[in-house]
């Protein structure tokens, strides 16, 4: 008995086109990566860039972008999360042994260098995402900073009359303020790390040691 047209194998089922599915998945991953990479550039040019503007920057269609991110806020969230994840890989290599004051300064300086690259995304995220979500995305970085601050308190470098949670909040707010001021053109990005460290040094120092 001849096989029916289009049938293949037992039961006459069509073969699963694994190759096509894999290619579609790879294309989707490439498009998502292109969108996440293009978003900081689009927001640097225009903080109010629309979804269509960002799609054009990425070289994809608007519907392709919406296939990955349903809203602009969702795209901002994903872009900031992706950027911070990449930054985390760099910050993990910052040496934190030795003098806590020096370690704190190195961590702040490295953090600012990374933040400066994505400050447009960060500033927009501050305006469009809940503060709790932004803090949540900073959990790993904050845990690293907490370790340095706690060490500094134990060794008498940082003030112990203020709780660690407050010192971390002040650090977070100071970094945010530097990003806002730099984005507004009121602070030179090359001078921001010095300003941040100077501000925190005067706030954290115990007996002038830091």
Automatic annotation (TrEMBL):
<keyword id="KW-0804">Transcription</keyword>
<dbReference type="InterPro" id="IPR009057">
    <property type="entry name" value="Homeodomain-like_sf"/>
</dbReference>
<dbReference type="GO" id="GO:0000976">
    <property type="term" value="F:transcription cis-regulatory region binding"/>
</dbReference>
<dbReference type="InterPro" id="IPR036271">
    <property type="entry name" value="Tet_transcr_reg_TetR-rel_C_sf"/>
</dbReference>
<dbReference type="Pfam" id="PF00440">
    <property type="entry name" value="TetR_N"/>
</dbReference>
<keyword id="KW-0238">DNA-binding</keyword>
<dbReference type="InterPro" id="IPR050109">
    <property type="entry name" value="HTH-type_TetR-like_transc_reg"/>
</dbReference>
<dbReference type="InterPro" id="IPR001647">
    <property type="entry name" value="HTH_TetR"/>
</dbReference>
<keyword id="KW-0805">Transcription regulation</keyword>
<protein>
    <submittedName>
        <fullName>DNA-binding transcriptional regulator, AcrR family</fullName>
    </submittedName>
</protein>
<feature type="DNA-binding region" description="H-T-H motif">
    <location>
        <begin position="50"/>
        <end position="69"/>
    </location>
</feature>
<feature type="domain" description="HTH tetR-type">
    <location>
        <begin position="29"/>
        <end position="87"/>
    </location>
</feature>
<feature type="region of interest" description="Disordered">
    <location>
        <begin position="1"/>
        <end position="29"/>
    </location>
</feature>
<dbReference type="GO" id="GO:0003700">
    <property type="term" value="F:DNA-binding transcription factor activity"/>
</dbReference>
